[in-house]
Prior knowledge:
It is a single chain. The protein is α/β, with parallel strands linked by helices. It folds into 2 domains: 7-136, P-loop containing nucleotide triphosphate hydrolases (Rossmann fold), CATH 3.40.50.300; 142-391, no CATH class. Helix content is 41%, strand content 21%. It has helices spanning 7-13, 33-41, 65-77, 94-104, 123-127, 142-149, 155-164, 168-173, 176-199, 204-216, 224-233, 240-252, 282-287, 295-309, 346-357; strands spanning 22-26, 49-53, 82-86, 109-114, 132-136, 221-222, 256-263, 268-278, 313-319, 322-330, 333-339, 364-369, 377-378, 381-385. Strands 6-8-7-9-10-11-12-14-13 form a 9-stranded mixed β-sheet, with helices on both faces. The protein has a 5-stranded parallel β-sheet with strand order 2-3-4-1-5, covered by helices on one side. It is globular.
Amino acid sequence: MREIRRSSYLDKILPFRGKHLIKVLVGQRRVGKTTILRQIASMANPNDILRINMENGDFSWLLSEKELSEYLESSIREGISEIYIDEVQLIKNWEKSVNSVFSRHPAVDIFLTGSNSDLLSSELTTLLRGRYISFEIFPFSFGEFCDYFEYARNREAWQKYMQLGTSPVNYMLNDEEMIREWMKNLVSTIFLKDVVERYKIKDVHVLEEVFLFFVNNVSNHISLTKIMKTLGSRGVSTNLTTLGNYVEYLKNAYLIYEAPLYDLKGKQIFDRERKLYLSDPIQRKVFFSGYDSGIGKVLENLVFLEAKNRGYAVYVGRLWEREIDFVIEKDGKRKYIQVAYVLADETIVEREFGNLIAIKDSWEKYVVSLDEVSFWTIQGVRHVRAWEMETIF
Length: 393
């Protein structure tokens, strides 16, 4: 598999190299965390580093804190000064060993990866509060996709991106049927390892139905009540507490991402109503139960991921009865984005641009679509074709 330098992440992580902080990379399985670690490790003397990949059978004997502590201490005595552990959550009580090394050996640099964001609210914060810095790794952006295939950033490349999705392994396969099978296996593994086993879920069927609901409702406004009613109509019985937990578990495993509702008039954020997006839009092709190709939904999903990839907080906007697809914020600055499949007629143009024109502030406003022809700027709202989206950020 061809490897590219993920500069946006390396530029954030490398300044912390050699600093007395544990570096933690979190993100969905097979999203590229291991590659980033390998690229960081490649800059060191091979004799100075210890790499442990818990998805590699060679380390299956590292079951708990005891084995890990003994292995790390013996390696440090032999001169190891940088430690890299992939999928650290697979080692029971790993945080005790890491905390010990961090405390006893301040000159040893520690890098970890994990596939569940719950690491940051449980194991890490239990013993390591104030001792780590985390970096969330997202799927490939359009720019990284183009770098991988050495494509120019144009309409043809964007269409290929929509076809192959955001997961690096998809690009190696480069075959629609193989990608479908791979995606089924990936989701199955995430369900088993990062959700069912971690949270000891017994009613797996309900969890699967919740995920399928999200697949079928990408970019739609949803609430727990709506999910519960839909599942009930399909004969699936649950309660709001369990349902809320399952949503959090799927988010923690990075299968889904959410955009809470932002009331622009009242300047309030409501998390009871939100939109949810997939980590890879290809999952919709694999698991969607209908016949709608959903190109507009895929486009919206990719715009959402692009903004998250670049470190923006992303919300769904509402101004009176008008919906703003995305309100994104970073470093005290805000931007508004509308997403449309194509601006096919005057009514659509008026709606998409009009929703943004109605916002009476000076922040930048954009309409993103797949039109071949650019509409330029209308009353301060700039039209951007999807493959030119990097100019927004």
